[in-house]
Write a structure and sequence with these properties.
single chain; Jelly Rolls; 2 domains; 5-stranded antiparallel β-sheet; 7 helices
Length: about 475
């Protein structure tokens, strides 16, 4: 038991390195699932747990060692409509981690496991989790109420996504393996992230049901080895909710980048280009192409770096459109908008995507300046969205929601990367980002859903109040002056 306690305490230091999955408001849960104080295997003293209502003070010793909080740690390209909780466990071939939770009142939740390179190895989504008692799964069955119980398991070993020889057990995801060239070695870190998107529980981003309880047990479930203390909010990065708000994001957005320093940035091209994110290695090669002007696909070949990175979510696929200030002070991205779950007039499970969003980010720091979720994005009469990115001082007066624009702040950075997320696509939606194979142009698969970027001059932008016309005018001007 002391070994488990030492491991749990050490996770606080580990979480500092992986707290990239940051987003949304720093809001403590108000209904955390209780940890049984009758078991001799609980990792804190019985009297302390009872005094704290079965929650550890300030999140100390909590099984969840870190939570996303953009006020303290806004990195790894987060989404403002989500909150992420980080945990890890000493899972081995002889043990597994049991996760006892309740279905949140939210758009989506999931568990993703990661390797040491912060690449996802396996995951399980909300609709894949069968209920543990009465009631149905509200993410699978229309009309089922949130709050019902489920039990998930994290098991040591190769996931079915990495080997067809391993059958997937019900309600189970796996630590997976780490690819080292042609070799694969077991992933024993057991780092995983619990995500909740678009919570309907007001300021409480946990969907109103608190955090799941984590229990280490033998691989066959016959013996409990230890139940990790639960908490409303982990210690990192805000001391279990006790630390004051820093206001760093608001401070940064109040700064105006000097136009005299409008220099090129290696992530961006002019005209802007949009690409799908596949892996960290792929992104590095793409940036090298921008810098050298050479197709790095044809120079010495590519090293397979696996898929994902930046603590990405396997249920999401992403495109990025990069800009720098040498191309102009106003950037636009436009595409046909997919339907999403909960959209008025769209039947349950007939939506094209469970969720989609647009986030303006700075590449080097991986911070977001702001995001717009699907339900927050105005569409024109043809069902297209048009994003405008600029400094507050450079925002055109006609860049309003009434005119079909969603405006996002550029921030005090030389560059901007607009990340476009597609989550859990309907198999009938062939234009989803997930369906774009590596090496295939986006337009070939996504068609009118392909995000397209342009720079625009202020005097051109104000020539019309219709977003479709403004984008066409900006594109024409950009092509004319290339």
């Amino acid at each position: 038991m002391k070994l488990v306690q030492v491991f749990t305490a050490g996770l606080s230091l580990l979480a500092l390195a992986v707290l990239g999955a940051c987003s949304s408001e720093d809001a403590p849960a108000n209904d955390t699932a209780a940890v049984s104080s009758s078991s001799s295997n609980v990792l804190t003293s019985e009297s302390l747990m009872q005094a704290m209502g079965n929650e550890s003070p300030l999140g100390l010793g909590c099984g969840w060692v870190a939570a996303s909080d953009p006020d303290k740690a806004n990195v790894a390209f987060p989404d403002s409509e989500a909150k992420y909780w980080v945990a890890a466990a000493p899972v081995s071939p002889q043990t597994r981690l049991r996760i006892d939770g309740r279905y949140p009142d939210a758009r989506y939740f999931s568990y993703n496991a990661y390797d040491v390179a912060l690449r996802p190895t396996d995951a399980i989504a909300d609709f894949e989790l069968s209920p543990a008692g009465r009631g149905g799964n509200p993410f699978l069955r229309k009309g089922a109420k949130p709050g019902g119980q489920y039990t998930a398991y994290l098991e040591y070993g190769v996931s079915p996504t990495q080997s067809s020889e391993v059958p997937r057990k019900q309600n189970t995801f796996y630590t997976g393996e780490i690819g080292l060239g042609p070799l694969g070695v077991p992933n024993g870190l057991a780092l995983f992230i619990y995500r909740v998107y678009v919570s309907n529980a007001g300021e409480f981003m946990d969907g109103g049901v608190g955090l799941p309880t984590l229990t280490l047990e033998t691989a066959d479930g016959s013996r409990v080895l230890g139940t990790l203390p639960n908490c409303a909010e982990p210690t990192l990065p805000n001391g279990g909710g006790a630390l004051p708000v820093l206001g760093l994001n608001e401070l940064l957005l109040g700064l105006d980048y000097p136009n005299q320093l409008a220099l090129p940035f290696p992530t961006a091209t002019n005209p802007p280009t949009t690409a799908r994110f596949y892996s960290l290695g792929d992104t590095a090669f793409r940036i090298a192409s921008n810098v050298t002007g050479q197709d790095t696909n044809a120079v010495g070949g590519r090293v397979d770096s696996g898929s994902g990175g930046f603590l990405s979510n396997v249920h999401n696929a992403y495109t990025s459109t990069a800009f720098d200030r040498s191309g102009g002070s106003i950037a636009l991205v436009r595409a046909k908008a997919p339907s999403y779950r909960g959209q008025p007039g769209v039947e349950f499970k007939e939506e094209q995507l469970r969720y989609w969003s647009l986030c303006a980010n700075e590449f080097a720091t991986q911070r977001f300046t702001d995001c717009a979720a699907d339900h927050q994005v105005p569409l024109d009469d043809s069902g297209y969205f048009t994003v405008v990115i600029s400094d507050t001082a450079d925002r055109p007066a006609n860049a309003t929601a009434e005119n079909g624009f969603v405006w996002l702040p550029w921030g005090p950075y030389p560059d901007q990367v607009l990340l476009y997320r597609h989550m859990l696509h309907n198999p009938d939606f062939g234009q989803a980002i997930q369906n774009v194979p590596k090496g295939t142009p986006l337009q070939t698969v996504m068609g009118e859903f392909t995000p397209k970027g342009v720079y625009c001059k202020p005097e051109v932008f104000v020539q019309s109040n219709r977003s479709s016309e403004v984008f066409a005018l900006c594109e024409q001007d950009q092509n004319t002056n290339r």
